[in-house]
């Protein structure tokens, strides 16, 4: 089992309180950053660490920070994106519930680096317990002099606020989040201008995922270079993976990037294999919006190399045979799961969560949902698969925000890899409603021509 | 700044959008726009019909843009090369967008007052397929009266947000907005509150489809049977220009609208008094007939057919009634 940087003290009783957290070395990074480093030094350390955004897109955090415009006399904001609502992802909620002070510590350091005097933590409306936990933690930190005016006597002021959202998935998109934070309808903005130029209230803003901000703490404590040694290639550091589905031991794991997928699913330190002695059929590796892969392609890449839990290895093969690390929502499906039903379920989610701004996404998600519903309930046609692929192509890339892409990818990839199962639903409609297709050839060792050609 | 659209170059000012640059060139290469409205700040970017391909970002950075961009909200860079109708990718994507716009549209053009001046109709005619691949029930809503002069028929709406921007920017306070999300979102007022202010009628003019219609004109006539005449009056309402188009049926003014340019955008907004209450020729100073593009169906009745219809030739009563026209035919 690899090193833990974020969840090291997760099992210490009372770690959610300031005193216990402080006694375990908490808030050391705040002292180090505010007293010995300049804001630019902090940004430089984060750049050196190679930390990539943990929210899904994987954009280098240090780079994002250095893009922030710094005009005179205009406030800058740091916004923490805690709107985690991707089906399959629950790592941020876990982190905020159990070690809220880690996030607050990261927020202080990151705000200092960016020169923000006011920072916000935007949480999904359903996370009411976490909002209370964070607010209590903020009050504790403020009491101890880590927030408010003149932090630790360094002259740096910071106010931190927790803002609950209304519970819409779309508000996890950074510009929609900013709209929602401003009190408006959570519609994504058209970019450019990017938030780094004109974000919250028209001021330069950085929006970071909860985990990205928490990861700043070990980076400052140990130095960017040390952090960069963990992991593999350009995927540095550790990543929280929320493992769910038919696993023997699902839950939130902190892995060093570069663990092999096989090890992650079957290893004793991790998920310990598939529950009830069944076999693995498919995996969604990074939350519902990334392409789904059959068992054979998730364990090995198309070149028959071991697939690793890293940004590069998971996306090896592009969209034809690869997927994405995304936000780390790892969902495993055993042989008894129906991919058509799962795809319909995802499509239903995106239909429900589309904001309705761009016509392709507004109308297309609903269309895909209806066609998939028809397929799942045995009224499908052979032409439906091509129709779905075509509709998903018409949505993909033609929308303001990535929700359109996120809605299109699971459908397109499910048909690409599991076309047999979709066709079986059409040819055996009465059987398909009562039983399911089973494992078929989806776990056969590679190379398989149908997988290679797809 | 120099920008090249479909191999035609033009010099434009910095900050101009691709769409506006294309409109300066004019003609076939102008991307269609359903939600963008040059008079409304912040409009555009939503309908995705104006997607274009940027095959060269700028002189300095010649890389192409990775995705198709909404031309109404993308500003030009020096040396930018844009492909609109010359790119099959754009045509394909636009066809997709038109299909998406139409899958929940009722296609009730035969009974819709907007028919003949509807942008969606034009767009569907140009880019749409003859048949739909959508085999499910279309989304429907009940008709709502917002005030006594405007009717909202949400079923036809394409959610361009133009009327929301109008209410925001032209009228003194915002009265309606979007409720709900995704394909069940709808334009509505707060608990069906009446829209009541001097400029609310402009939402009818900005609506690209027949979702917001003038109740004083509803079902009175087809637009292509009416004759548009430009007129003006001294309007006391602050902010109203008093320059309008009167739509005549015979001697009667049956509708008053703002003057729309070739892209369907009003030149200046008019007040509700001009729009709804001044329907007598005596109220107006007539400027002359309005020029209508000969591509528009509205112009079809404004150039008399030289040859009378067959039914006229066989019916003596009709022949008598059309005597004048027969004389003209022989004269020509």
Structure in words:
The complex is a heterodimer of chains A (454) and B (332). Chain A has helices spanning 18-23, 28-36, 39-49, 61-66, 91-98, 100-114, 128-143, 174-181, 210-222, 224-229, 261-266, 295-299, 311-314, 318-321, 339-353, 359-376, 383-395, 403-427, 429-434, 449-453; strands at 77-82, 118-123, 148-151, 156-164, 205-209, 231-232, 235-236, 238-245, 251-256, 280-284, 292-294, 329-334. Chain A is of the alpha/beta class and 454 residues long. In chain A, strand 6 and strand 7 form a beta hairpin. In chain A, helix 3 crosses helix 6, helix 6 crosses helix 9 and helix 15 (339-353) packs antiparallel against helix 18. The longest helix of chain A has 25 residues, at 403-427. The two termini of chain A are 35 Å apart. In chain A, 57% of the residues are buried. The model of chain A has no long low-confidence stretch (mean pLDDT 93). Chain B is an alpha+beta fold and 332 residues long. Chain B is built from nine helices and 14 strands. Chain B has helices at 18-25, 88-103, 119-127, 162-169, 202-206, 272-277, 310-314, 316-321, 323-331, and strands at 2-5, 8-11, 51-56, 69-70, 80-83, 144-146, 150-152, 176-179, 186-189, 212-214, 227-232, 243-249, 252-258, 285-289. A five-stranded mixed β-sheet of chain B has the order 2-1-5-3-4, sandwiched between helices. In chain B, strands 13-12-11-14 form a four-stranded antiparallel β-sheet. The mean pLDDT of chain B is 88. Chain A binds chain B through residues 168, 170, 185, 190, 351-360, 362-367, 370, 387, 393-394, 397-400, and chain B through 44-49, 51, 67-68, 70, 73, 93, 96-97, 99-101, 103-104, 133-134, 136, 158-159, 161, 177-178, 180-185.
């Amino acid at each position: 089992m690899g090193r833990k940087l974020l969840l090291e003290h997760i099992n210490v009783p009372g770690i959610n309180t300031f005193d216990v957290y402080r006694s375990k070395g908490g808030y050391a990074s705040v002292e180090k950053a505010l007293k010995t480093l300049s804001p630019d030094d902090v940004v430089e350390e984060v750049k050196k660490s190679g930390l990539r955004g943990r929210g899904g897109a994987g954009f280098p955090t240090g780079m994002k920070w250095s893009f922030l415009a710094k005009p005179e006399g205009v406030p800058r904001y740091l916004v923490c994106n805690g709107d985690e609502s991707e089906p399959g992802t629950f790592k941020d909620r876990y982190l905020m519930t159990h070690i809220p002070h880690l996030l607050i510590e990261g927020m202080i350091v990151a705000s200092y680096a960016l020169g923000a005097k006011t920072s916000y933590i935007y949480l999904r409306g359903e996370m009411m317990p976490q909002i209370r936990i964070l607010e209590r933690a903020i009050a504790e930190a403020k009491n101890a002099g880590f927030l408010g005016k003149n932090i630790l006597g360094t002259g740096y002021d910071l106010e931190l606020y927790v803002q609950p959202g209304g519970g819409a998935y779309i508000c996890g998109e950074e510009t929609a989040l900013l709209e929602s934070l401003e009190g408006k309808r959570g519609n994504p903005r058209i970019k450019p201008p990017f938030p780094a130029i004109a974000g919250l209230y028209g001021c330069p803003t950085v929006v970071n995922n909860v985990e990205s901000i928490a990861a700043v703490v070990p980076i400052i404590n140990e130095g960017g270079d040390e952090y960069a040694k963990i992991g593999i290639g350009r995927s540095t550091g550790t990543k929280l993976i929320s493992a769910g589905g038919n696993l023997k031991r699902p839950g939130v794991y902190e892995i060093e990037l570069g663990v092999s997928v096989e090890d992650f699913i079957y290893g004793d330190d991790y998920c310990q294999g598939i529950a009830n002695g069944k076999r693995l059929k498919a995996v969604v590796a990074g939350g519902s919006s990334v392409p789904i892969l059959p068992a054979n392609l998730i364990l090995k890449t198309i070149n028959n190399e071991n697939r690793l839990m890293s940004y590069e290895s998971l996306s090896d093969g592009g969209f034809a045979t690869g997927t994405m690390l995304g936000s780390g929502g790892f969902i495993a499906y055993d042989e008894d799961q129906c991919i058509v039903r799962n795809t319909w379920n995802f499509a239903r989610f995106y239909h429900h969560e589309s904001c309705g701004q761009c016509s392709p996404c507004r109308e297309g998600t609903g269309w895909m949902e209806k066609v998939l519903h028809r397929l799942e309930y045995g009224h499908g046609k052979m032409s439906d698969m091509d129709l779905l692929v075509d509709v998903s192509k018409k949505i993909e890339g033609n929308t303001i925000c990535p929700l359109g892409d996120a809605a299109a990818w699971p459908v397109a990839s499910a048909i690409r890899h599991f076309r047999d199962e979709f066709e079986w639903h059409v040819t055996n409609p009465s059987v398909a409603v009562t039983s399911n297709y089973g494992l078929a050839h989806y776990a056969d060792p590679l190379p398989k021509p149908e997988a290679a050609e797809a | 700044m120099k920008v090249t659209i479909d191999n035609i170059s033009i010099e434009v000012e910095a900050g101009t959008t691709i769409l506006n640059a294309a409109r300066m060139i004019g003609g076939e290469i102008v991307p269609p726009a359903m939600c963008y409205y040059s008079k409304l700040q912040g409009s555009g970017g939503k309908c995705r019909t104006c997607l274009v391909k940027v095959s060269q970002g700028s002189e300095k950075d010649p890389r192409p843009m990775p995705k198709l961009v909404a031309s109404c909200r993308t500003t030009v860079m020096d040396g930018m090369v844009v492909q609109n109708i010359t790119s099959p990718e754009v045509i394909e994507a636009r066809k997709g967008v038109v299909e998406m716009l139409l899958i929940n549209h009722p296609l009730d053009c035969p009974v819709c007052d907007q028919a003949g001046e509807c942008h969606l109709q034009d767009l569907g005619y140009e880019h749409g397929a003859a048949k739909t691949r959508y085999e499910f029930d279309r989304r429907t809503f009940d008709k709502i009266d917002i005030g006594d002069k405007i009717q909202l028929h949400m079923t036809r709406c394409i959610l361009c947000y133009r009327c929301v921007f109008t209410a925001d920017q032209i009228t003194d306070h915002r009265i309606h907005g979007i409720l709900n999300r995704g394909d069940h979102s709808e334009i509505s007022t707060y608990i069906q509150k009446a829209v009541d202010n001097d400029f609310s009628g402009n939402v009818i003019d900005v609506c690209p489809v027949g979702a917001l219609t003038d109740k004083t004109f509803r079902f009175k006539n087809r637009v292509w049977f009416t004759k548009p005449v430009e007129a003006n009056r001294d309007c006391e309402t602050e902010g109203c220009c008093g320059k309008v188009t009167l739509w005549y049926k015979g001697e009667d003014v049956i509708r008053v609208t703002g003057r729309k340019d070739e892209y369907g955008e009003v030149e200046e907004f008019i007040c509700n008094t001009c729009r709804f209450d001044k329907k007598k020729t005596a109220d107006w100073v007539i400027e002359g007939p309005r020029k209508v593009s000969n591509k528009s169906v509205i112009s079809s009745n404004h150039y008399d057919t030289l040859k009378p219809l067959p039914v006229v030739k066989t019916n003596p009563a009709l022949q008598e009634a059309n005597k004048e026209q027969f004389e003209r035919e022989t004269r020509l």
